[in-house]
Amino acid sequence: LVYEAVVSLVPHVKKLADWKNLSLKKRPITVTDKEVDQALEDLADLRRKEIRAATGEIIGATDKVVADLDMKREGVPIEGGQSKGSFIFMDQESYLPGLQDAVLGMKEGEEKNFPLTFPSEHFQKHLAGKEVEVIVRVKEIYHLERPAIDEDLAKSVSFDTLAALKIKLNENIGAEKEREEEVRFERTLLETVAEGSEFEEIPRGLVQSELGKMLGELHHQVTSQGLSFEDYLASIKKTTEGLKTEFEPQAKRRLEIALVLKEIAKQENIQVPEEELSRALDHQTKGVKDKETHDRISSPEFKEYQRNILRNRAVIDLLKRAVLGTSSKK
Fold it and tell me: The pTM is what?
């Protein structure tokens, strides 16, 4: 037997950008009083108390309603349009505009039929812009008492004063902005180095493989939010092939960044100490009881994967030190 195999060879970096003399700066981090005030508003909303409405009381503009919903179109039940014990928050925007207005003033035990129109941009295209019949059966009504933004609110979350709570919220918002800026800066840095470098032609097979990974990541992101990937594609008016075409420049850039990281590690002789790799692998297996998962983490393939992650992290840290050092000098 004679076998022939066609494989994609990993391309080389023909010319690496002069990363040691780049000049990039991080954006300054600021937290406004408005952002702190909004965080206080959100905190107060989270600590609202629910008080069951008395018999005969009607639904108010700030209440929480527990209801059974049944939706039909032209007399035919809509798939997924039936739900028991759905929450309707009267002061929050609904996925079905007009729902709150329709139930306002109803009492517990009442049932009401009314027509509503789905938004024209709704992700379920067969319902977008269409009128449906909605049947609501009110099961429970709760009045929501929102605490005042004062010293008592601060004490309820273990702060002595409202001023101390504001200081902590300011710190938390600033820390989150720092994390976001760190991600943005690293992405910009890697893209800048890749743009300034020259590469051998990247084989089509590698690009297709990277596109497959990107679509897999998007699929996981969409389905983890409880959405159908097919409905998502319909909502953005794209096909899988259309997304591949759209993602192709990004896929090539991701491959170029991977090549750049590998080349810098080679030139700078960046190695991952075995002790560091062992600690990372031990952390991965900590608490894992499933034998299949444990065996996968213990495999040589996963070990090499983890080594690459640690090596890339070391290269990125090297780049940041060099670039931020250059920026500070200039």
Answer: 0.75
